[in-house]
Amino acid sequence: MEWGPLILAFALIAAAYLYGFNLKSTNTEPNVRQVTSAESQVLQGWDQQIQEPAERVKRVAVGLNVNADLIVSATSLLDKLGIQPAVSQDHTLLNSLKDLQESFAFFFESGAAAERYFANGEVYKRIIEEADKLEQKEYSVGGNAALMAYKMAELTDDVQILLIGPIGPKVHSLMPSSVNIHETSLRDTDEVHLIMEYAKGEKWGALTTPIATRFITSHDVANAELDGLNVFSSSVKEFNPDVVMFSGLHLLDSSSQSEQQNKLSALVTELKKLPKSLPLHLELASMANEGLVQFIVAQVLSSVHSLGLNEQELGLVSRANNGPHPDITAEESGYIEIGAVADILYWILTSLVKGQSSLLTRVHFHSLTFHVVATLPNQWDNSVSAVGVGARIAGRQACGDVPIQPSKVTLRIPKAFPLSADYAPLRKTVVIVDPSNPLMTWKRGQVTFHFSPVLVCKKPGKTVGLGDAISATAMLYTQYMQRL
């Protein structure tokens, strides 16, 4: 008889039982017991555990994708377009209203965030015109690079930020004045991306979505061309930043394979012009093209020091490159298996990018319910605080509250979990969650994992840009040791 699974099952049951009594109480009057919620304990734990880095980041260069986001209610727009649910099927590229209906239904039903390129510019123009007629709409800064710059400027007054990319008049007017914009980045028109948001439990026809999130689509020419790449390294050198953060590679989804390879090769050429001691962070975004992911891994990943991604991108990276747990997905609650995530992060840092020439030593994973920063030794400092800050900003931005109100958020991670799904020594190690000490670390070989739960907003006001806010905030608290 196999005793291992039985012992693990008993351990998990015992851990869950113990966790039920792990809520602290305070006595303000005799014989009166007040219980502090798990959410309140996490907030207090973050305040106690998060520490400032020994040396703060002072200058950050950010590129390359910049656009204006047009944010609307997904179901309101679909109703205006006369689109109702029928077939549910994902399309890597959208060419018609039918493609939009089928792809949106696919992700709405599962509650997964997604971004798909609209290849037909005329149809996309019609959709934007109808979206602009809605009474409830909002224009905001969009594009991963612009959102990272915007969030950092919002959070601090003492960090100098340079934004590189195609910046039109609407984005320019919305961007904080503290963000430096070189004249070579200014354009006559904005690229507009459509953000179709929906709430948890929202209905569309016979479909009901389990999670609040968004579907993004665009017909973006400038960012798909990596406009601004030709001045990227020269602008960065002139600015002399402490760290460089860039994104936008997902917008190559619509290009041919030869164009993808040529653009990525040009990007690597630009990156190699920068000092190796200057940390480079690549933020991935929603993609459907496994071939593009393979190109990014083969051509770009070894030239960056840090990588940021969510559960959809993590699964795609693993699936496209024969990694572990290729079918990893989030459950209806938004929870994804922590041990399986750790297995993939370990594989990325130790097997996916090989060779002494690789610079990659950090991966920042963020999901709805928890975040993990995985690092190699002697490269990064203050990572446990960085993962905590990133998790905290997710709740703040989703709910729009600073500080977070405990009654408006919920702790959704399991009460106990193993540290691996396929590595026996850690699969047998069960962690009991202590809300009062939310930040934790563990090791597998040379890889250290830094973990924080997220306080999930019950009724989020805004879902777009959370990943960018998370990565940008965490980077302000991260210290790259090789630069000192």
Notable characteristics:
alpha/beta; 10-stranded mixed β-sheet; 26 strands; globular; 484 residues; UDP-N-acetylmuramoyl-L-alanine:D-glutamate ligase; metal ion binding; ADP_PFK/GK; magnesium
What does this structure look like?
It holds the Pfam family ADP_PFK_GK. Keywords: Glycolysis, Kinase, Magnesium, Metal-binding, Transferase. This is ADP-dependent glucokinase. With 484 residues, the protein is of the alpha/beta class. The protein has a domain at 47-66 and 142-187 and 222-483: Ribokinase (UDP-N-acetylmuramoyl-L-alanine:D-glutamate ligase), CATH 3.40.1190.20. It is built from 15 helices and 26 strands. The strands form 7 sheets. A 10-stranded mixed β-sheet has the order 9-8-3-14-15-16-17-18-24-23, with helices on both faces. Strands 5-6-13-10-4-7 form a 6-stranded mixed β-sheet. A hairpin with a 2-residue loop joins strand 23 (440-444) and strand 24 (447-453). The longest helix has 17 residues, at 3-19. It starts with a helix and ends with a strand. Residues 5-11 and 13-34 have low confidence and may be disordered.
Extended strand count? 26
- Average of per-residue pLDDT values: 90
The fraction of residues in strands falls at 15-25%
Query: In the CATH hierarchy, what is the architecture of the domain at 47-66 and 142-187 and 222-483 at level 2?
Result: 3-Layer(aba) Sandwich
What secondary-structure arrangement, pairings included, does this model have?
Elements: H1 3-19, E1 25-26, E2 34-35, H2 38-49, E3 59-64, E4 67-73, H3 74-80, E5 93-94, H4 97-110, E6 114-118, H5 121-132, E7 137-142, H6 144-155, E8 160-163, H7 169-174, E9 179-181, E10 192-198, E11 203-204, E12 207-208, E13 213-218, H8 232-239, E14 243-247, H9 257-271, E15 280-283, H10 290-299, E16 306-309, H11 311-320, H12 338-352, E17 362-366, E18 370-375, E19 380-381, H13 383-399, E20 409-411, E21 416-418, H14 424-427, E22 430-432, E23 440-444, E24 447-453, E25 455-457, H15 466-476, E26 479-480
Parallel strand pairs: 3-8, 3-14, 4-10, 5-6, 6-13, 8-9, 14-15, 15-16, 16-17
Antiparallel strand pairs: 1-2, 4-7, 10-13, 11-12, 17-18, 18-24, 19-26, 20-25, 21-22, 23-24
Helix pairs in contact: 6-15, 9-10, 10-11, 11-12, 13-15
